[in-house]
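Running co-folding for NAP.
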Amino acid sequence: MKSVSYRSYGAPDVLRLELRPTPKPKAKEIQVRVHASAVTTADWRLRASDFPGGLWIIGRLMFGLFRPRKPILGMTFAGEVTEVGAGVSKFKTGQKVFGFSGGGAHAEYLTINEDRAVAEMPETLEYSDAAAVPFGGLCALVFLRDVAELKEGQRILIIGATGGVGAYATQIAKAKGAHVTAVCGGTSEDLAQTLGADTVINYHDTDPLAGKETYDVVFDCVGASTFPKAHKVLKKSGLYVPLNFGVRELRQLMTLKKGGKRMKLHVNDDKPEDMQELTALMTEGKLKPVVDRVYDLIDVFEAHSRVQTRHARGTVVLSLG
Ligand SMILES: NC(=O)c1ccc[n+]([C@@H]2O[C@H](COP(=O)([O-])OP(=O)(O)OC[C@H]3O[C@@H](n4cnc5c(N)ncnc54)[C@H](OP(=O)(O)O)[C@@H]3O)[C@@H](O)[C@H]2O)c1
């Protein structure tokens, strides 16, 4: 099968198109012919070994100290089930599925345990749309629902509101009935409005953390703020949730006073029931895939470079059709 591999950390040119053996499904696994997969900020960070906030060594210990432990990137997939292993009961051959694999999806075939974050694809979606959703969708859902515990009527500031996670966070926050102030650049203001933002701040013109407006939640999807800066625009017991954090934030957590403004740090997980919730939101018309651009497999270098700009509008997608 065709795949994109990386054998060393570095710039996009460490990526190689490689022919590899097609994986066979073990017990409880399904084999999926991948038709589309997102290129996410996680793919860029792993490829470049660009782990934020002084957590470089932890990243290297987790993903390979001297070279990548798992050579195939690709966190999300959309495709067709081509084979099922022994004991598989949730999926059958021929079914269209999408999900979060956490790696291995930049290849024509992958295998994944049926109990991981996999769901049947909504009928109305193309593969490239479906592959766009799981990374940003799962992250936004879990951070807003479980970490921020966002409630109807609350005011949320989303920094990086039109990116790989933000584009889904903006929609999910609206679906929860929150008042959303979206922060993005001038060229993405229209997108933020389409996604449902009540107010849009162009960060080139206005510092979103210097105004008089206060928020119940500040959700920073891009790493453009700090807790001390966000502190000024948080309500009395408001919550700061940064997706990117490091040693600085871990230290700040230890000095937080009880009853005051709060910060929560979290690392996302992937659960099948959350894929079901995303599917339900899409079926109800409350969540739409946001695709920046679809690249052919051969153009994976350009796709990675696009993600690394930090100006993607939604999700960058790789086509393996
Ligand atoms: N903790 C976890 O479990 C977890 C999970 C997933 C991801 N992450 C991390 O969270 C981040 C998610 O990134 P993503 O995929 O959403 O990023 P992204 O796609 O690169 O974000 C792009 C967005 O950020 C905006 N932006 C760029 N520079 C900005 C600035 N200086 N101020 C305000 N907005 C700015 C862009 O707007 P314009 O294009 O209009 O400029 C666009 O809306 C990654 O760093 C990833 O590593 C963490």
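Result summary
The mean pLDDT is 97.
The radius of gyration is 19 Å.
Job closed.
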